[in-house]
Write a structure and sequence with these properties.
alpha+beta, DNA polymerase, domain 1, three-stranded antiparallel β-sheet, 3 strands, disordered C terminus, Putative xanthine dehydrogenase
Length: about 130
């Protein structure tokens, strides 16, 4: 995720980018946040990382950082997104292992379409524990 301050709007804007397509020189003056920068097993996982893991949304792990950072960026820009927002933010992410269902189910709990109990339906759901 890259972030920049918009002086006219007086706010920080966040963007998901394809890291492999962004020349490092194009990032001058921007803040860069990677999946390692939002949480780890040592410092504690971010809720986005936790939910993709709990939903079994990662198999080979190749797409996982991009999926996590797309969801993280969406949440930074819109704390209560809809499923339509989620679809828009994930338009450029590809996964060949999970078939997307577990990824989307893991992240559905962040959306306004999730319902009161979270998408997993478990009594110990992370949403009920206040981790969302």
């Amino acid at each position: 995720m890259i972030s920049r301050y918009d002086r006219e709007a007086d706010k920080v804007e966040h963007y998901s980018i394809n890291a492999c397509l962004a020349p490092v020189v194009s990032l001058h003056g921007l803040a860069v946040t990677t999946v390692e920068g939002i949480g780890s097993t040592r410092t504690g996982l971010h809720a986005v990382q936790e939910r993709i893991a709990l939903a079994h949304g990662s198999q080979c792990g190749f797409c996982t950082p991009g999926m996590v950072m797309s969801m993280y960026t969406l949440l930074r820009n819109k704390p209560r997104p809809s499923m339509a927002d989620l679809d828009e933010y994930f338009a450029g992410n590809l996964c060949r292992c999970t078939g997307y269902r577990p990824i989307i189910e893991g992240f559905r709990s962040f959306t306004t379409d999730a319902g009161a109990g979270g998408s997993c339906g478990r009594s110990d759901c992370c949403r009920r524990k206040g981790k969302g």
